[in-house]
Specification:
Helix content is 57%, strand content 10%. Strand 7, helix 11 and strand 8 form a beta-alpha-beta unit. The longest helix is centred in the N-terminal third of the chain and has 18 residues. Pfam families: nSTAND3.
Amino acid sequence: MRDFSVLSDVEFEELAGDLLGAEVGVPVERFAAGADGGIDLRWNASGITTIAQCKHYLRSSFSQLYAAAEKEVEKVKRLNPDAYHFITTLDISVSQKERIYALFSEWMSGPEYVLGGRDIDALITRHPDIERRHAKLWVSTGMQLFWNLHSDIANRAEALRQRIEKSMPRYVVSSSYGPARRLLDEHNVCLISGPPGIGKTTLAQMLIAEHISVGYEPIEVSADINEAWVALSRDTSQIFLYDDFLGQITFSERLAKNEDKRLSDLIEKLSSGHSSKKLILTTREYILRDARLSYERLGELDSRYQFVLELKAYSKADKAQILYNHLWHSDVAASCLREIAKGGYKEILNHRSYNPRLVEYCTGKAFDTQSPGYLSRFKESLDHPERIWRVAFEEHLTDEQRLLVLVLSTLPRRVAIDVLLEAHQSLCCNLGVLSTESSFRRALEVLEGTFIAISRNRDSDTTIQHANPSVTEFALFRVASDRKVLEAIVASAVSFDQLAELFLYARGGSFIYGGNPELMTALKKMKEKFTAAMSASFDSPSLQQEKAWVPGVGITIVDPTGKLDERVGIYLQVDKEWHVGDEAIRVVVERLLGQWRNHKGDKAEASSTFTILSSHRSADHYMGEAHEVFHDWLGSTLDTAEDWRHYIDHLSEYDGINLQNEWDIADRFERFMEDEIVSSGPHPSDLDDMKSIADEFGLYELSERIDEVIAAEAEPDDDYERPDGFREGGYVTESYLEGLFGRLAE
């Protein structure tokens, strides 16, 4: 049976009306939401007037449904229709149907006038065109079928699946859905931007859900766009989600060296390709504006393909339905719902700070949804949205739980549970707060769904992150304002990476995001302790360790190859702010140059650090030697397309070489590409990159050959036809709103 739980009672009535209209072949009247006097639906066929009552009682027992049916008897007597239907989503048995029929037998020809969940399900099967009009239902059904048929994909995408299934019942198809779908149809790419809390992620999830329902494999990108390149499959319909792709607070967190090019290459590849591959990205509006100033290709591509959708404001109809759906699907006490129903909804819908995230918070388990004064508390959160986490943090959490929220702001966006456990226990120990592994697990249970989100990565390892960027901002504010906690975090850091995260959040450094001045001021006051902690933790394990195959050992956990490159870069940036000392800089730079002499490290991280070193106050002391060893490393290890890209960038940016005059290097590159083309086939991302390098060398015949290979690898088109089911909200009257929210008081 289909999952009717994704529908609200209003949405179910719309579905029932459409199904009965198709069944009887005449228009079915629907009435404004609210007190209906026993009529939800009405139609006239062959001179017989029939009315119907809909009861969406999925979360109730049959005894509750039967009690509700008994209350309808007097209403039906007053109306005295020619015929009467009683419709429910509850899966009722034959005997239960007979009992309801006995109540209304005077207006029913038989028990078949009582429609239960399975009867509705059968009607949907008989009228598939009606199901397509009710997108939440068919998308949910299609997703479940997809997961059942592809258990391997379901396991890999479990975290995404859970988030979509949690969001779908409360989702309202707003006026932004149509344009988003059209962008995906026309360009296969949609970049959703907008202010915090407006619903970017939820919109993206619904787009993903719709495509899953028609057979697209979902791929969630979490670290960098290379994950999408690696996962690309020529013969599979795929849809990629890259949420907050420019960072949660500032784009300076994101886009390692050359990632903007890889991302631009992927956007261009998908935008000019067939529709079996889709890409959805989300970001905050101000971060996108900021990034465009640094990454010109993003702006150039959007000018050409126009794939950016900016979410701005909701219509009043959208706002009302969002609020209603959240309240209807929540556990808000009946007395609190009455406060909303008796006019309180007006103050919420008309509030300047209204947005879906605040609505979700004020109807969720972190908020007091049981005590009198619910409307006042809701309005207080709207009046001061920056405080939405403060009350729950201060009044509902223990010291151990609070420290978990705070320490998470110093860790990677998604962190392994064992890493979080170690960092949390170290901080608790420093502050004298009792914490055990079992109490840590209980803290996770308390915080999940409010302050944190728990998921699994592609290796099925459990990872933890803040529930959304506003939690991270709140945690950083608390850390900056509590010197004792900040000093404890610095002193108890289990990895250099924690200190780096704090510093980068404080410094910011992008055009729009100036950083966190309060945090920077607090760190500066304790700079001696901070730099001492950096030195002490410089060789600590990375918090972003990777799984690797080691001969004779097997799969083991290792530090990323770019750990030293990245940490020296952070050291240089901290020195620029506070001058950590010439000897400390000498030690770390010489270690870095020693690694480059041995041709080790991560070239992307090394390139970034080389750039930082070139503008550092000590550049005169080290740049001659640094340039020599870096140039030798890049030029001596040209085994992959990525090696070539780093080498070409270095020659162009730092050596000022005109590549069209470098025939020896061009000849070497041409031989490399000849081998690549005749081999088992280079990666699609390498092909695009190699074509651009061939053009830079002036190797136009080679560029044409690469073009031919790219064309041969074009994905097959699919036969996906876009449904017309997502209807968009518009104007609503005050009487409609009164009736809609009046249902909550029944």
